[in-house]
Amino acid sequence: MGQKVGIEVSIAAADAVGLCDVDVVAAYPITPQTHVVEHLAELCASGHLDAEFVPVESEHSAMSVCCGSAAVGARTFTATSAQGLALMSEIVFIASSMRLPMVMFLANRALSAPLSIWNDHSDTMMVRDCGWIQVFCKNGQEVYDAIFHAFRVAEDKRVSMPVMINVDGFGLTHVIEPIEFWTKEMVKEYLPPFEPLYTLHPDKVVTMGAFGMPEIFTEAKKALDVAMWNSAPVVVEAWNEMAKLTGRQYMPVETYKADGAETLILAMGSICETASIAVDRFREAGKKVGLVNLRLWRPLPKDELRKALSGAKDVVVLDRALTPGGANSPLTAEIRSLMYGETARPNIYNMVAGLGGRDVTPEDITTMLEKALADQHKGYYIYGVRG
Amino acid sequence: MASVANGVSMMEKKMAETEKKKVIKPLKNFPMEEYINSGHRACQGCAEVLAVRHVLKAIGPDMVMAMATGCMEIISSPYPYTSWNVPWIHVAFENAAAVASGVESGLKALRRKKRVPDKDVTILAMGGDGGTTDIGFQALSGMMERGHKIIYVCVDNEAYMNTGIQRSSSTPFGATTTTSPAGKVAPAGQMTWKKDMTAIAAAHGIPYTATACPTFFNDLQKKILKAKEVQGPSYIHILSVCPTGWRVPPQKAIEYGQLAVDTGVFPLYEVENGIWKLNRKPKELKPVSEYFKGQGRYRHLDEKLTAEIQEKITARWNRLVELSGADKES
Questions:
Q1: CATH 3.40.50.920 correct for A253-382
Q2: Domain span holding position B79
Q3: Domain spans of chain A?
């Protein structure tokens, strides 16, 4: 077992990438992602990490470099945030459809305008349908562990897909937490070398990125969808294997004090830690409130979610993104749609909170829950707007 | 995801043999291998695919190629077919230089770590004039500035031909396209001067920059071979006559290439470690009107406009002669 150290989450994540012996890192600086790539640049410059650090001129090129390096069979990493993700989004969609394994650390930040460097989930929701495996983390240890997991899953021949790790900007990227490090031996045992099915090399000539006529395009997209669903057991298997090594067991859907809960709070990311404090207080007050933490956003763990939610009377979804002019916000839309066909389905309420770094305290969560149950609003409610 | 490129079929081999007999004057050391197969979907008389053929012949099989979206991509890779006999990747329009940067960086790391065979692999990036001088400009500048060992080839047919002949920043002054039509307000059609991409590339201080044209294929291949040898980025700008977009008969593509060079519209030169050198210096430049004659895209030009263009071309040529010191040679 590795050492437990107090360390900034971004630095720890970069150390994890280094431990994975990554071959190519391509990134463009954007707050709050910077500490990750700064540390990787240091590791490369000092010779601690034998990798090509490509300081690209834009995020669009970052993702393009990643496509090129993954295509030759190099272990590939990038990190970005908000506007950076928006700029590279064209290529983000292509990376998954070309089945190029790589790992992205996404420091979740609000999309402009107004310009905001602070945290919400509008960036990641913009690329919700990009065909990447997408996970969320609620604390530093999870972020650190997620790096090893992501490389293992992405590069697994049964998967061969890019993986995006969502890390709340500042609230998670910049905090110092006690994190238990992995040893080199653990990484060696957990993460096999990257050996893709096809690579670009003169010794075996392949064409990658041919264009699809209408006769083949639907089939190509169906193949991506099938591959996405097929990745689910590999994602879980990799978490189970990690549990054997570290003792930390991750699951696609995790619950906290949810047994016998009448009301469930559902959320993703670091807000879940805040919500757990609110849950404790409700429980202390004798109220049957629990928490559902959705870790695996894509592929959506449908069965696990249904199981977790079906016993409850009410579910309050905390959404950190807004769909202006839509029926409801992205996470809620997903949950409502998932539960629509269930005979015993809970009322599902949509609270939009924590946009652009607005702090969400346990008290806010308590207020939101009470308000949702009192109003029984069928659409969505933007919490905390100043009058 | 990936389909294996087919080798040359028996029929093609036979065809190549028959054609071989017809060659009047075989070229010494001319590579017979083909790395882009026939059967692709290029228009008749496409000088661009000819340029590609020569580029690949010069480099040989040990390469990986990253290509931008555009004519050459779309004619060669309708899934599940491919025309490419070399490892080839297409990701998007504006990023061939960046994808190639990734290929180069990845192979560099893997070779260092002994995870790929220890041999030199040439990395080739290729885009059209739109994919290079407009939308791919930034990615290309980044690639050159970072110093990747990549040959970037711009195959310039002077407009967005793939989407239906729209103007780019590489469309010359006076040419009509579907988005730079000639009219009362814009008598010249394209009212702006062609972006001097080769000079911009040279300004990055990269080891090797050159212009080329498939009409002068020996010169073209020689330049690619030079580019292959330099340590760092190289940029080759190839004028590729597009009969469809320029509105010239397909059998005239080679001829117009020659005229472009001999009128000074597209001079053949190279910049090697900062030293400019003219590669073809006609005793006297032909008038640009000879080059314009018969090109549908220049049909509207009157004498005044032609004179204006001639003035600019002559001035540019003189500057190039001066830069390359060719004026002091004779």
A1: yes
A2: 34-329
A3: 4-246, 253-382
Confidence check on the interface: ipTM exceeds 0.95, yes or no: yes
Q: Of B61, B79, B141, which has the smallest distance from its Cβ to A211's Cβ?
A: B79
* CATH, domain range A4-246: 3.40.50.970
What six digits make up the tokens of B111? 């070779």
CA–CA separation, B176 and B99 (whole Å): 33
Residues from chain B that touch A193, judged by Cβ atoms under 8 A, are 115
Look at residue B11 in the predicted model and tell me its pLDDT: 53
Give CA–CA dist B7/A372, Å, rounded.
Answer: 66
Inter-chain residue contact B79 with A71, CB threshold 8 Å: no
Are A210 and B77 a contacting pair at CB < 8 A? yes
pTM comes to 0.95
pLDDT at B24 over 60: no
Helical H segments across A247-376, by residue range:
271-284, 302-310, 330-339, 362-375
| Predicted confidence (pLDDT) at residue B209 exceeds the cutoff of 50 | yes
Percent of chain A scored above 70 by pLDDT? 100
For residues A21-50, average pLDDT = 98
Distance between CA atoms of B265 and B213, rounded to whole angstroms?
12
In angstroms, the CA A323 to CA B199 distance is 47
Domain annotation covers residue B316:
yes
The reported pLDDT for the residue numbered B1 is: 40
Report residue A118 as tokens: 């602070």
Residue B2 located in a structural domain: no
A160 CA to chain B: closest CA distance, Å? 11
Question: How many domains does chain B divide into?
Answer: 1
pLDDT in tens, B58-83: 999 999 999 999 999 999 999 999 99
Give every CB contact of residue B72 below 8 A, 6+ residues apart in sequence.
B42, B48, B49, B52, B126, B128, B155
Tell me: the pLDDT tens digits for A273-308?
A: 999 999 999 999 999 999 999 999 999 999 999 999
**Residue B69 has which token pair?**
């979206």
* Structure letter (DSSP) for residue B160: B
- Percentage with pLDDT > 70 across chain B: 91
Residues 87-126 on A with a CB inside 8 Å of B are 90-91, 94, 98-99
User: Which residues on chain A are in Cβ contact (under 8 Å) with B127?
Assistant: none
Which residues, 6+ apart, have CB-to-CB distance to A379 below 8 Å? A327, A328, A350
Q: Let me know if residue B141 belongs to a domain.
A: yes
Residues A117, A31 contacting (CB under 8 angstroms): yes
Residue B8 has pLDDT above 80, yes or no: no
- H runs (alpha helix) in B60-205: 71-76, 96-112, 129, 137-146, 197-203
Name the one residue in this structure whose structure tokens are 């969505």: A380
pLDDT bucket at B326, cuts 50 / 70 / 90? confident
The CATH number of whichever domain residue B108 belongs to comes to 3.40.50.970
What's the pLDDT tens digit per position in A307-334?
Answer: 999 999 999 999 999 999 999 999 999 9
Torsion angle, CA of B34/B38/B40/B42, rounded to 10 degrees?
A: 90
Please answer yes or no on whether A74 and B105 come within 8 Å at the CB atom.
Answer: yes
Q: Quick one: tokens of A97?
A: 């459809």
Q: How far apart are CA B128 and CA B118, in angstroms?
A: 32
* Assigned domain for B21 exists: no
Round to whole Å and give the CA distance between B109 and B107: 5
Q: Which one of B33, B101, B140 makes the best mutation probe of the A interface by having the most chain A beta carbons within 10 Å?
A: B101
Query: Is it true that A4-246 and A253-382 share their CATH fold?
Result: yes
